Amino acid sequence: MILHLSHAHLQALVDHARRAAPTEACGVIIGRADFNNVLRAVEIMPLENRAAEPHHTYYIDGHALESASIHAARKGLSLIALYHAHPNGDVLPSPSDRAHANYPELAQVIIGLRGGEAQIAAWRIDVDAVDRVEIITDESDRANDYAKINSTQRTALLISAALAFLIVIAVSLALLPPAPPLPR
């Protein structure tokens, strides 16, 4: 699983985490999953942390999740991730995060603010396993576009480029004026 976030999305996550500190900021990420199992974020939706101890854990109310899901569905999107901050911690899932991971189908994004330095990581947290989810941004996505195409696509791209070159040469030759007659 890969999570695609723009720089604006990353900044929105960090800004929310910093505004909410020293409590844990939380919310959802709305978007779509493409055929390559890449989760593409479209919108960051901050939600209220309803935990009894919001300095140490987070809790998103079921009604808030339902409203966010309806909001996403109206846009033809879905919930692709939950996010929360560790205001004085790192980006590793805490024991509490693992114990309360009730949505294993959603990526879990954690914003760590240890020492004022923001870091972001994503995880897939299931009952028995915690797996890292790769986060890609606009630049890393563009830089790797050529590497992401398969050999058939690469061959088609090269053949198309060669044919385009030949067509330009043929059209150029066809547009040349006739050669002057040779002297006798």
Secondary structure topology:
Layout: E1 2-4, H1 7-20, E2 26-33, E3 38-47, H2 62-74, E4 78-86, H3 95-99, E5 107-112, E6 119-125, E7 130-136, H4 138-143, H5 145-148, H6 151-174
What does this protein look like?
The protein has 184 residues and is α/β, with parallel strands linked by helices. It has helices at 7-20, 62-74, 95-99, 138-143, 145-148, 151-174; strands spanning 2-4, 26-33, 38-47, 78-86, 107-112, 119-125, 130-136. Strands 1-3-2-4-5-6-7 form a 7-stranded mixed β-barrel. The longest helix has 24 residues, at 151-174. It is elongated and about 105 Å long.
Estimated share of beta-strand residues: 25-35%
The biggest beta sheet reads: 7 strands, mixed, barrel
Output the number of helix runs.
6
How many beta-strand segments?
Answer: 7
Q: Looking across the biggest beta sheet, what order are the strands in?
A: 1-3-2-4-5-6-7
Written as H for each helix and E for each strand, in order along the chain, the element string is: EHEEHEHEEEHHH
Fraction of residues in helix: 25-40%
What is the overall shape?
elongated
